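task queued by scheduler; priority normal; single chain, no ligands, no partner chains; default sampling; output format set to structure tokens
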Amino acid sequence: MQGKFGDHITVQIDGHVAVVTLDKPPNNHVSVDFMRDLADALDAIDGEVALRCSVLQAEGKNFCAGADLVRSESAGGLGSVNPLYDQAVRLFSAKKPIVAAVQGAAIGAGLGLAVMADFRIASPDARFAANFVKLGFHPGFGLTHTLPRLVGPTKAELMCLTGRRVKAEDGLAWGLVDEVVPLEELRAAALRLAQEIAENAPLALIATRKTLRGDLAAAVRAQTGVEAAEQGVLRDTEDYKEGVRSVAERRVGVFLGR
């Protein structure tokens, strides 16, 4: 099953581990097709009995810098985000463990992708941000559910209400990151953890992960419905348009509350 899924997702096999690569450098911006191809790859991995764990890694400077909102808005807007979040729910529905190797930015939907994985190995230059409020927008990708689950409600609220970038070392202290390694060792470290997981009995791995994650996919589906509704309202505001401009221009937004 190794090979390409769509234009920007590749899968290689290393023993009992599937190495999934986001190949849309330098920023690996998400789109519905990109997310659908990734979900298709994880579905295919679930269907291979010999595969027991995945590594999710990325080409380029950044793991995933979210959606390209400037391009999306110039093309007439994102439209409904529900198709994107439908694919996000499919990712959370994957049956087998995932180890993310994160370098550079994991921002917005990129943070959502990183949090979707079971574990995150990061390089020192990695930075994690839920920067939605800087865009005059509401968090999405189920982050209002998954982030508190991972780092606790106070740290999640801090990230979501400030939009600040959390460095890898701080993420390690918070539980957002499981290990920080030099950039040149990042992929090897992620593969090493995945191989340690994949040494174990495959049916037991799936059953144990299912118990530990509980109703996570269903909770993400419910939460993305709430998030999408809030985003739909905010997308029509002047503040959102200013937020997209200000982030693109690397300045603080001048928001008016309308």
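post-processing summary
- Residues 8 and 24 are 6 Å apart (CA to CA).
- The chain has eleven helices and ten strands.
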